[in-house]
Write a structure and sequence with these properties.
The strands form 6 sheets. The chain has a 6-stranded mixed sheet. The protein has a 6-stranded parallel sheet with strand order 13-14-15-16-17-18. A 4-stranded mixed sheet has the order 5-4-1-6, with no helix packed on it. It folds into 2 domains: 82 residues, Roll (Urease, subunit C, domain 1); 284 residues, Alpha-Beta Barrel (TIM Barrel), CATH 3.20.20. Helix 5 crosses helix 6. It has 10 helices and 24 strands. Helix 5 links the parallel strand 15 and strand 16. By secondary structure, the chain is an alpha/beta fold.
């Protein structure tokens, strides 16, 4: 067994001090410091007064470290996994995008068949596209966009955790009705031109999630509340890209207040240029220009992000009044609950995977532990 001492332990509802985490591949216990002398362990990590939380979970990430999910290679997934642990991510959903059916199937097959070692765990797939609305395609390639097609993805529903789609393109909600029979799959509105009424009806029929709120969807207007209005009117999960570019920092507080802190999930939507230098990259076969803060197509459309998940946490911490445990829940508890994995990951509790991160007051990641193994450490 191993232990982490001298830390501030972030739990769902509180921050513990003067306690020790004992773990092997799973969390064994949390004991008071004055009781730890009676616990026999093989090694100790001294957190030196820094924070410890459950490992971060990114439910929407296309790539990082120069690779993309759509590269459909084992090298790509392993590099992404090994890159994002430096941002505190211990579990993630490799995310696809609108490309040819064969390209998408190749990516899905690769995710299913790749055994990741030494990096963040792939816990399924986020299928973003091709079932979206061309009007709000964002950086998705319009020539590959199609209407929701259950037959196309039915053989992959064992690994798909989230499907982003435009509900107004789903005639008579046939797609929703078929997919919702698979309890492990989350139906999410995104890249959509749905009206408030259409969005409400989609939620009533089985949609429980909204992809990167505000971006690539009908906005909030006092006469036409759109998808955002429907989100505020219902108790469903939603993603937020808190890079201060996709969504202005001035709205972070009110958005989380309106949508409930228990339902907001911070994601990166990072593309292959994440953790890389500025320059020219590729996304879905399209040229992307990356500077110090953003990734954009040649027509200036935002093309995903280069956000790191720990920076998203910092941006919310710096621009809202929420407590640190409430914010950490947005990258741990909330995403784990949203995709039905809260019994396994997402919080520091006995019996859960020992996925842990140590970070300082600036949310700089110092140590990342996955299944009890220290995979990243700042010396």
């Amino acid at each position: 067994m191993r232990a982490i001492i001298n830390s501030k332990i972030i739990l769902e509802d509180e921050v513990l001090e003067d306690s020790v985490i004992v773990y092997n591949d799973k969390i064994v216990d949390i004991v008071k410091s004055n009781e730890f002398e009676n616990v026999k362990v093989d090694s100790i990590i001294d957190a030196k007064g820094n924070y410890v939380s459950a490992g971060f979970i990114d439910l929407h990430i296309h790539g990082s470290g120069g690779y993309d999910t759509m590269d459909a290679t084992k090298e790509a997934l392993n590099t992404i996994s090994k890159t994002i642990i430096q941002n505190g991510v211990t579990s993630y959903l490799p995310t696809t995008m609108s490309m040819s059916k064969s390209d998408i199937k190749n990516a899905l097959d690769n995710i299913r068949n790749t055994k990741i070692t030494g990096g963040a765990k792939s816990v399924g797939v986020h299928l973003e596209g091709p079932f979206i609305n061309p009007k709000y395609k964002g950086a998705q390639n319009e020539k590959y966009i199609i209407n929701p097609d259950y037959e196309f993805i039915k053989n992959y529903l064992d690994i798909i955790r989230i499907i982003t789609f435009a509900p107004e393109k789903d005639e008579n909600f046939e797609f929703i009705n078929k997919v919702k029979q698979h309890k492990n799959v989350v139906l999410s509105m995104g890249h959509t031109d749905a009206t408030f009424e259409q969005a409400i009806e989609a939620i009533q029929n089985g949609v429980t999630y909204v992809t990167h709120a505000f971006n690539a969807m009908t906005g909030l207007h006092h006469r036409n509340p759109g998808v955002i209005g429907a989100l505020f009117a219902n108790d469903i999960y939603c993603e937020l890209i808190a890079d201060t570019i996709h969504v202005h920092k001035g709205i972070f507080q009110s958005f989380i207040d309106m949508n409930k802190k228990e339902k907001v999930i911070l994601i990166t939507d990072s593309m292959r240029a994440g953790c890389m230098k500025c320059g020219e990259y590729e996304l879905g076969g399209q040229r992307v220009i990356v500077d110090e803060i953003s990734a954009r197509l040649e027509d200036n459309t935002l093309a995903g992000s280069i956000l790191k998940l720990n920076d998203a946490v910092k941006n919310i911490r710096d621009n809202t009044k929420y407590k640190i445990n409430d914010i950490i829940n947005m990258v741990t508890v909330n995403p784990a609950r949203a995709i039905g994995l809260y019994d396994e990951i997402g919080s520091i509790e006995k019996g859960k995977a020992a996925d842990l991160v140590i970070f300082d007051e600036n949310i700089k990641i110092l140590t990342t532990i996955i299944n009890g193994d220290t995979l990243y450490e700042v010396i």
